[in-house]
Amino acid sequence: MANEKVTSLDVARKAGVSQSAVSRVLTPGASASKKTVEKVRSAVTELGYRPNILARSLITGKSRIIGLVVAYLNNRFYPEVLEKLSHRLQRKGYHVLIFIANNTQDDISQVIEGILEYQVDGIVAASVAMSSDLAARCQAAGVPIVLFNRSQDDDALCSVTSNNFLGGQTAARHLLDLGHTKIGYIAGWEGASTQLEREDGFNSELALSNLKVSHREVGNFEIDEAKQAALKMFGASNYPTAVFVASDHMAFAVMDILRSNLGLRIPQDVSVVGFDDVSLASYSAYDLTTIRQPLIQMVDTTVDILLTQIEHPETVNNRVIKIDPVLIKRSSSSVEKEK
Known about the structure:
Layout: H1 8-15, H2 19-26, H3 34-47, H4 53-60, E1 65-70, H5 77-91, E2 95-100, H6 105-117, E3 122-126, H7 132-140, E4 145-148, E5 158-162, H8 164-177, E6 183-187, H9 193-208, E7 215-218, H10 223-234, E8 242-245, H11 248-261, E9 271-276, E10 289-292, H12 295-311, E11 320-323, E12 326-328
Parallel strand pairs: 1-2, 1-3, 3-4, 4-5, 5-11, 6-7, 6-8, 8-9, 9-10
Antiparallel strand pairs: 10-12
Helix pairs in contact: 1-2, 1-3, 5-12, 8-9, 10-11
């Protein structure tokens, strides 16, 4: 029997069970006896049956599809995010569609409108901003959204982030404890809540020691712009002895410029601290001191909030969750030395 012609009724006949029993076995979270499951799975394998997810969604009103929207896929943090989010959702019986959006309202709006056409059950927006109108459009369609690694002042949205303000404070305290007083900062995209909160925390901790950043440049969370920021900051003789970079993605570019273009040693000449703790940060080529985002906790919390909104919408209050990050000390930072 050709695969495309096999139906659930064929599976039911082969297994000697009802069509509804087949549906229960193939529906995540539904219950069926072990004997029934074995019969149905055996028939599915023998006949080469593939459930039509879209057809089932027309009957149940649920597609069991989640849309994941991300803006910075070239940043190593986000492939790790997408991998963990996808695995977690798949274990819960949901399918994942990934969409890439430029971080502009026009592009984000077009992507979200496209996602809604797939009749998704929910959306995770990773580091993209949502307009109030767009959030209202999703709410009217009955599609819950959770912001991941981004927050904004909108009562219609739930968000899950690390405590970026605390992370900035922690980075500053680490450098101050090492004796640094001439400290630079390389910012991410200035429209991002994560960037603003990290910088605010960093500056507030410096201010407690009656200090402020000696140099500031903007890298916009982009490799090339971070390189240019590093050249501007460290190309003159009065460069800082330490720098906090708003993401590991940019910090790697900064470290490459310091060593390869400017001939500066890390940490002997410049201490570098990043933010995220992506896997590359622990590689010996960088061994980057960084603020670790609690990724697994953030992913688990995001999925729990989203699925609660999908499965029990009447019980959900809008929530803003901030999970504390931790400092990971490596060899890219050390005590301040006179130049």
